[in-house]
Amino acid sequence: MYYKSRKYRLFYICNFAFLLVASIACVLPLIHILAVSFSAKEPANAQAVGLWPIGFNTDAYKQTFSNPNFLKSIVVSIERVLLGTVIGMAVTVLTAYPLSKMNARFRGRTMYTWFFVFTMLFNGGLIPTYMVIQKMHLMNSIWALVLPGAVSAWNMVLLLNFFKTVPRELEEAALIDGANHIKTLWYIYLPVSMPSLATLSLFTMVAHWNSWFDGMIYLTDAQKWPLSTLLQTIVVTEDFSKINMRPEDVKLISNETVKASQIFIGAIPILLVYPFLQKYFVKGMVLGAVKE
Amino acid sequence: MNLIKSLLDSRQTWQLHAMLVPGIVLAVVFLYLPMLGLVIAFQDFKPWLGFIHSPWVGLDHFRLMLSREDSVQVIRNTFAIACLKIVFGLLVPFVFALLLNELRHMFFKRLVQTLVYLPHFMSWVILGGILINLLGNSGPVNQLLSSLFGIEPVPFLADGDWFRFTVVVSDIWKEFGFGTILFLAALTAVNPSLYEAAEMDGAGRWQQTLYVTIPAVTPIVIVLGTLSLGSILNAGFDQIFNLYNALVYDKGDIIDTFAYRVGLLQTQFSFGAAVGMFKALISFVLIVVAYRMAFKFANYRIF
């Protein structure tokens, strides 16, 4: 047996150590920012904090949560995640169901499918999309963040591939009972696809929570920004030109501990859904990338 | 069965068409209209003249793009960064999956898997904020380097070549866990009897890896490699935008960030659209070629 040889055992120990270090390296930056956020101002601004807070206190979080701009952006983010996920999933389900039918049963299926798949292959790009949003009078509206991304050909393809695996007998039974397509979708397809739907919903939620660029270009009123746009502008780029703030507030926000606390708060929702993401993740990934 | 079949066929398909309406409307408005909007790349578009009355200039913007020094440099940057990301983005997860596959401590294996793909789900806003803090001149990483090796601070985000290095390494760091999972799934699917046979023939673990494992997962590597052709001009807008600054424009500016700055911030709409279209067209051709190749050689299809 190879794993009893001394050479392999030596390799195994080195390998074990290497993998341990590599995987810890994936979470260290997050731990660092958490440590900075709970540190006292002076060591944080002097960048003396490593992985453990120096002069533990929660002032940064108190300041962050007393900032009305910040609280407002969280509300906008939640609103956007909810609207975006509900509308996006509704469109995905409604589109994937007809496209999962066989060509013989639904003439025009191939044409429709290519209509959607083509959007994966080519796009108008930033400037024309921006002009369409402008012409539709969606500037400064939350719909500018929700509607353009509602059609995701990739999600559609994933779901339609899953719908194809639903046994035909189930559908035939429903048909005998007099169900139409809408009822078949609602009572047969949706219940049996719950794991897939959960995966896609989680991915959509994460994408909406993380999305920042659309908020930056479509919302000129900084009061309407979602959290990630606010973080990008105020914390990462430190551009205060678009938001009205008193100089003392600016000084407060450019404090390293306050910055760190804001960044960490932005990461919390992802950490919360991560266990669920992980549960479905492998299945979803493999489904999308390697098909039999 | 014939009865059921004829019932199924006779069912009105108008409901199926109707279900597609919301998706089609949204796709037409937000995905197809912008494609039509690309006509401004061939015009000297002025907002007050509109699409109809703006003067046509043919391929002038494209010619300008390929002769302007900054835009040529931007195309070069994009290509260089994207290629490095593609190569190492395949190589690192592949090796990591091979190493992870050797682990027999199941708990530890699962722990590693849990930790390595956490960064994948974080946005570049969050990670950018953290990295700027970590990699600054007096940041923790440089402090560590100087106390270990006594070297001058490394300008990770302030020098063009270092910036490229930082961008590629941090992208690999964020995404390798994702790729690892994929390769690991392929590795665990290798038939165990192949290993037993190799063992009977006296192959050690290294030889088993060389002659059993690697050939077994080569097809999926080829498929992924082929498909990533389509992203040869995708250097990662979110990442670059959150990490770059005026100091590194020469080596770090990419097509997407350039199109945004020139097109939207400097309101050269037509030129910006032309730059975007250049990228979209090349990507389109490469994606189509890549999928055809993947289908031809590995029978891979998406739907």
TrEMBL record, chain A:
Swiss-Prot/TrEMBL GO biological process terms: transmembrane transport
Transmembrane segments: 12-35, 81-99, 111-130, 142-163, 184-209, 260-277
Keywords: Cell membrane, Membrane, Transmembrane, Transmembrane helix, Transport
SUPFAM superfamilies per the UniProt record, alphabetical: MetI-like
Compartment(s): Cell membrane
GO terms under cellular component: plasma membrane
Pfam name, any one: BPD_transp_1
Membrane-topology descriptor: Multi-pass membrane protein
Domain of life: Bacteria
Domain ABC transmembrane type-1: 70-274
Entry's family note: Belongs to the binding-protein-dependent transport system permease family.
Full protein name: Carbohydrate ABC transporter permease
